[in-house]
Every structure is written in C-alpha cells, then in structure tokens.
Amino acid sequence: MVVILTLLAVLGQAAAPESLPAAPPLAAPSGLSAADTPNDQGKSVTLSWAGVEDGRLEGYLVERTEPDSLPAVIGSTKPGETGYLDEGLVDGRKYSYRVAAFAAADTAWAAEGAVATSRPQFFNTGRINILIAMGLFFALVIYFIENAKRGKQLFVRRIAGLDAVEEAVGRATEMGKPIIYVPGLGSVADIATIASINILGEVAKKTAQYDSALLVPNRDAIVYTVVREVVKESYTKAGRPDAFKSDNVFFVTDQQFAYAAAVDGLMVREKPATNFFLGTFWAESLILAETGASTGAIQIAGTDSVFQLPFFITACDYTLIGEELYAASAYLSREPLLLGSLKGQDYGKMIILLTVVVGSALLLLSKVQSLSFFTKILGFFSTR
Amino acid sequence: MKRSIPLAICLVMGIAMMIQFFVPHPVSVGFFDLTTKWVRIVAAFALVLGTGSLVMYHVDKLKRKREGWVYSIVTLVAALVTTVVGLGWGVKPGRPLQDVIFQNFLVPLNASMFAILAFYMASAAYRAFRARTREAALLLIAAFVVMLGMVPIGAKIPMFWFMVALAVALLIVGITGRSKMLVVGTGVLVVGLLVWMGFWKFRVPQLMLPDTAEWVLSVPNMAAKRAILFGVALGGIATSLKVILGIERGWLGGGKQ
C-alpha cells in the first residue's frame, strides 16, 4: 500500500509542470472610428472598432471626454460587440472617445482615440428606395388620371360584391326593412375606414333615392362625426335632405365587444334586409357576420385584414377582398378620375411582381461566389 | 368654402406628413408629435359629440317606447353611474371605476362576448366545409390536414397513409354517387401516391401530417396572404394620394372636381 502511494506521489510530481509560463498581456482594440449616426435626429454618435481575439476577453469599455471636462467611462459592450451608440449628446459639440478591452485582471486601452460631433440630418438616405418607389407609383397614378381626364375609356373588371349593392338596397325597399351599414372598428386614420366612408356616401345616395332606412352604428367618435356629415351630404345630393334622420347615424361605444354586442342586438331586433360590413375589423368580424346571417339579411362585407377575410367569405354573401374595398368608390361612382387611379394601381402591382421575380433571381445568383456583388443590389430594396 | 377649406387642409397636411416621413430632423419629428397631439384633442371633442349622440338616441328610444326600450334604461343608467363614479372618485387604479366597474363588469362582459366567438367559429366552419363545390372540397381537405396536424394525434399519422385513406374515401363517394370525376380524381391520386413511394420499391415516405400542415400554412396560405397584402399596400397609397389631391371626395359627401 505504501509502495503504491509513493509511486502515485512520484508520478504526480512528474506530471505537474515545474512553473506556468506568464500569460501574454491583453491586446488593445484597434481601428476605433467615431461618426455622427446617419439618418437620425442628431444627439448621437456611433462608434466602431476592430475586436480582440482572446479567450480571456470579458468585453469592451467606452470612454468619452467632453470639452472642458475629465474623461469618463460611459458604457461597456459584450465580447462579440464591436460597436456602441452614444446617445443624449449635445449637437455641434466635439466629443473624444477611447475604447479598451478588459478581462478579469487586465484592461488594455487603445492608443488612439477618435473625435466626433453629432448633427441632425435633413434627409433619411436609408429611405431613398421608398422615395423612388413612391415617386414612380405616383407618376403612374397621375398619368392614368390624366388619361382618364382626356376621355380615354378604361376597363375595370366586374366586382360581384359591388354589383350587388343596387340589388341589396332595392331589396330593403321592397321588404320595407332597414339597411345596417357598419363602417368598421378602425379610426379615421385607417385607409380601410376612409374607403368605407367613401362607399357609404354612394350607398346613402341610393338609399335616399329608394327611400330606405339606413342605420349606421359607429365605434369611433371621430368616424361618427364624419359619417354623419357624409350621409347628410349624400341625402342632400340625392335631392332628399328631408329623408335624412340624424338619429339613424349614431355612436355606440369605443369598446370592441360591447360594440359587437350592440350591433348584434340591433340586427336581431330590426331584422335588416341588408348588412354592410366594410372597413377595419378584428375578432368581432365573425360575431357580426354570423348573427347577420342568422337574421336572413343579404350581407356585403369587405376588409383589408387578411385574418378576418376568411370569416367574412364564410358568413357573407359577397366579400370585397383587400384592395377591392379601396376600388369600390371608383367602381360605384364610375368617375373617370377615380377609375384612372385603379389602372395606376394595376401597373404598380405589375412592377412589384417583376421586382419580386428579379429579386428572387438576384438572391439565387448572389449565392454564387463570383456573383456576390448582387447582394449590394438587393440591399437597395431593404428599408432602414 | 365649406369644401375648399377641408380640401386645402387635407392637401397641405398630406404633403407635409409625406415629407416628414423622409426628414429625421428634430423640427420634423416635433411637427409629427404635435399633429399626433392635435388628433387626440380632436378625438376628445368628438367623444363629447359621440356621447351626446348615444344619450339622444336612447332618450328618443325611451320616449317613443321603441322595441327594446328597456335596454336603453340599462345603457343610460350605466353611463350615468360610470360618469358619477369617474368624476367623484377618479379614474386611477385602485378607485371604484377601475376596481369595481372595469374589473367586475366590463372585463367579464367583454370576455363573454369573445367566448361566443368559439361557437360562431364552429357554425361558420360547418358552413364552409360542406363540400358542395370542388373548391369547398379542396378547402375541406386542406382544413382537415391543418387541424389534424395541429393536435397531438396528428403527429403520429404519416401523410402517405392519410392520402391512402383519402383515396379510399373518394373512391367510395365516387362509386356511390356515380361521379365519374371523383373516380378519375381518385385514379390520379393513386398514380401520384405510387410515384411518391417509388413504384415497386414500396417505400413509404416519412413525411408526417404536421409537416404537411406546416407546409400548407407557410407556402400556399402565405403566398395568398402576401398577394392580398401587396394589393392592400398599393390600394392604400393610391387612396391616400386621391384623398390628398382632392380626387376622392367621398369623405366630403362626394361630388365632382
């Protein structure tokens, strides 16, 4: 036993190194650059530097020196992060920066520092692609509107849901029952709500002509005030200002499900001949549409929410899908100027389709090493 | 005048907000914040009008004793109690408005309405999945794959055997219903399955039902959604442009240029 223990002790001594070599000092980061952060409202500077490859590294320290004051460490980053955004600065002031790599027992400051001044920008260059696309699209729309002004005939495909509007209003007149128009639950800032209000103007004209009752429950107070004026104006335009009843356009509540309950109750009590659900809808879409379907009304719905469209398609007789809602006003009024813009939209879609095809091809080609410069072209399409 | 002032405001503000999107300068950001505050102020005034409309509507209903007038009493009393409690004790958390009215009345009522959605979904699904047309039949099969793929038992079903079961079901329906199209469709499906398993090798593919469900959601479903979204985005921009330029005047009650 003693022999074994002695042998183990001798072997242990042989295996242990006599003395550890001194570890090399931690390298300092290099290539520090400090510049005004691009495309911002000023008050910030962006720093970047070349990282240090060392297993002991725990991170980097950032030191800032303001004019007429002592240097101070303002922050730190993790080992893999070789950049820092310094915010809350005073525009036009010169700031000096230094960075250091730090480990448990060592800190290595870079020999060279960098100086930068923050300034606000007047143009976000990261959005130049959006500006070009917008300009192109605007040009297309205006070109077709000008064409329409000159009297050029424009073809617009048939939209069944909009063709049914006349029939739906007529049905209400024959049955002596009202029409319920829900302009969605969105605010007046939603494009779908604006589109819905535009359609409501046309529907109100028809109900005034046919002498049908039009009930418009509202969820948004601003939408309510706009809608009331639109319906009133439409009745006046149709030559029936006396037929307008201000009580028929009313505010209900801004609570989503309380509104749904109120409209459900209205549908069950009034048994309308026709229901319009046009605008922005959320989870209540199916609650409204199913209740409406159970009362036996003709239902015309339309929304730009892809999540609610399946519910409307299932429970309503006609559904305006996405952009058809925006096109409805032009389709119903048949005003050449409005129809011209639809043509512009179609060409816009064609350009997007081409961009998708070309972009996909470039993405595939950029994977080939010699053609990697295509990634720069693709970068133009990303937004910042 | 009544029309030209709103149109001029719309044109100026529309163009200003478009320019603001491209200008990160503090003046531009400040302008954006200011207009956001304006919207809130306008909304506050509009809410007064809205509340007035609500009260007038229900008072009129009560006066005329129209159908469901009893519910108008509930609405008016609720509005009055909420106003009194809110004005009297404040609206912050810990006050009766939050702790009693909001937590004990509004939240459960909202939850109840939301819960009804489950039943409406079932009835809507029943209506949607009745295979009366070819499209509805396709929808039914796709929905069945997705629904089964989302539940635990679906993870144990290989897609291949699901398709075999489907082919058998189609054949039975085709023969009993004397539908040549269904029988031919079943034949095409069987040939497809044979190709998939490598004919004589008889190798059952390892694809499981959840993989197919995931594919249905992320490929054809996503493609359709994106197509709609492209149209919506362009339609939205075009509508904005028409409103800003005064071409679209439906929001003013319509009318020519």
Compact description:
The complex is a heterodimer of chains A (about 375) and B (about 260). With about 375 residues, chain A is α/β, with parallel strands linked by helices.
Keywords:
heterodimer; A: alpha/beta; 6-stranded parallel β-sheet; 5-stranded antiparallel β-sheet; B: 257 residues; 8 helices; 78% helix; 0% strand
Compute the separation of the termini of chain A in Å: 75 Å
Percentage of residues in helical conformation of chain A: 40-55%
Mean pLDDT of chain A: 89
pLDDT average of chain B, as an integer?
89
Computed structural class of chain A = alpha/beta
Could you tell me the radius of gyration of chain A in angstroms? 34 Å
Sheet of most strands of chain B:
none
Helix-strand makeup class of chain B: mainly alpha
Q: Which two protein chains have the largest interface (Cβ within 8 Å of the partner's Cβ), and how many residues from each?
A: A-B, 87 and 65 residues
Shape of chain B: extended
Explain this structure.
The complex is a heterodimer of chains A (384) and B (257). Chain A is an alpha/beta fold. Chain A contains eleven helices and 14 strands. The longest helix of chain A has 31 residues. Chain A starts with a helix and ends in a 5-residue tail after the last helix. The mean pLDDT of chain A is 89. Chain B contains eight helices and no strands. Helix content of chain B is 78%, strand content 0%. Chain B has 257 residues and is mainly alpha-helical.
